[in-house]
Design a protein that fits this description.
Layout: H1 4-11, H2 15-23, H3 30-43, H4 49-56, E1 61-65, H5 72-87, E2 91-95, H6 101-113, E3 118-121, H7 128-137, E4 141-144, E5 159-163, H8 166-178, E6 184-188, H9 194-209, E7 219-221, H10 226-237, E8 245-248, H11 251-263, E9 273-277, E10 291-294, H12 297-313, E11 321-324, E12 327-329, E13 356-357
Parallel strand pairs: 1-2, 1-3, 3-4, 4-5, 5-11, 6-7, 6-8, 8-9, 9-10
Antiparallel strand pairs: 10-12, 11-13
Helix pairs in contact: 1-2, 1-3, 5-12, 6-7, 8-9, 10-11
């Protein structure tokens, strides 16, 4: 079995240089790095990860805790995290907290006990125990998709990566209003999640921009899952003056809303228009095709890895929140005919092209 010394001799470099290439501990000239990689490939050298972790106190592993891994949105985030981790030579340990605060703390503790170098977590609606555990043990962490409360002075306690939520939701509402709808309902997510708060804010902002009043009866919570959205949509349809258009706040709730509409014998968009937050692979296959806000889910995952690795390299750097732009995907469930241009609201862009860092 080839050793690091064998690789060094074959590449014509020192053992220390081979170590720097493998561990990324010091910049190496590109041609020297390539010579080392060629020697590793030629000799079939396999680094002793366990021995290396004992020396460096690093395992080159990242813990990922996200709920509803079966959800296409989080599946794509997982793909982005995995690609980013592998690109930098890190392995991935995955756990599902099931959106339960107590279980969340347990799975994060289990990941921590496996000596991951840092964590990427999509926190629950009540992450108090999670945040307390991470703080007690000083675990380098990036919060993903869902944000946690900031400190009193306005800076986030941890690095955070998410998509824009408020403005894209407002854009869905103004689009429906531009089409003539006056009773636009929102099927919101699980109370307590930052995504729920922000998309509800965006909904209200879109109503205000369109000169429409806010009606609390038109906002229901689908709890971020299909069955909850099905019940919530049924409640909306039972109102004395039901909505003529729906905005659903994630892809799982879109499925639930569609089931409720089907059970009532209602056709989209002839009987009721529908726009959704979250695009997904088969949204284009529905009839009608779903008008949606598409989140850059893979990029969110990849950026979370990058931010975490920057935190590991520089533990004292200021924390930040990175928001990535979303894209309006214009199809036909909103009531626009196939192939038509999208009516533009004068104050809302078709695509949000600027992410923000705070």
């Amino acid at each position: 079995m080839a050793t690091m010394a064998d690789v060094a001799r074959s590449a014509g470099v020192s053992v220390a240089t081979v170590s720097h290439v493998l561990n990324g501990t010091r910049p190496v000239l590109p041609h020297t790095r390539q010579a080392v990689l060629d020697a590793i490939d030629r000799l079939g050298y396999t680094p002793n990860t366990l021995a290396r972790s004992l020396v460096t106190a690093r395992t080159r592993s990242i813990g990922l805790a996200v709920s509803a891994i079966s959800n296409p949105y989080f599946t794509e985030i997982l793909q982005g995290v995995e690609a980013g981790a592998l690109e930098h030579g890190y392995s991935l340990l995955i756990a599902d907290p099931h959106d339960d605060p107590e279980h969340e703390r347990k799975v994060v503790q289990l990941l921590h006990e496996r000596r991951v170098d840092g964590m990427i977590v999509a926190p629950s609606a009540n992450p108090r125990e999670l945040v307390a555990y991470l703080g007690r043990h000083d675990v380098p962490t990036v919060f993903l998709d869902r944000l946690v409360d900031t400190r009193a002075e306005g800076t986030p306690r941890y690095d955070q990566v998410c998509a824009e939520s408020a403005e894209p939701t407002a854009d869905l509402v103004t689009h429906l209003a531009d089409l003539g709808h006056r009773r636009i309902a929102l099927v919101a997510g699980l109370p307590g999640l930052s995504t729920t708060r922000e998309r509800t804010t965006g909904y209200r902002r879109g109503l205000a921009a369109s000169g429409l009043p806010y009606d609390e009866h038109l906002v229901v919570h689908g709890d971020s899952e299909s069955a909850g959205a099905e019940r919530a949509t049924a409640a909306l349809l039972s109102l004395a003056d039901p909505p003529t258009a729906l905005v659903t706040a994630n892809n799982a709730m879109t499925i639930g809303a569609l089931r409720a509409l089907r059970d009532r014998g209602l056709a989209v968009p002839d009987d009721i228009a529908l726009c959704c937050f979250d695009d997904f692979a088969w949204a284009d296959l529905f009839s009608p095709r779903l008008t949606a806000v598409a989140q850059p889910s893979k990029e969110i995952g990849a950026q979370a890895v990058r931010v975490l690795l920057e935190r590991l390299a520089s533990p004292d750097r200021p924390t930040r929140t990175l928001r990535l732009p979303c894209t309006f995907v214009h199809r036909t469930s909103c009531g626009c005919p196939e192939g038509s241009a999208r009516p533009e609201h004068p104050e809302q862009p078709a695509q949000f092209e600027k992410g923000t860092i705070s």
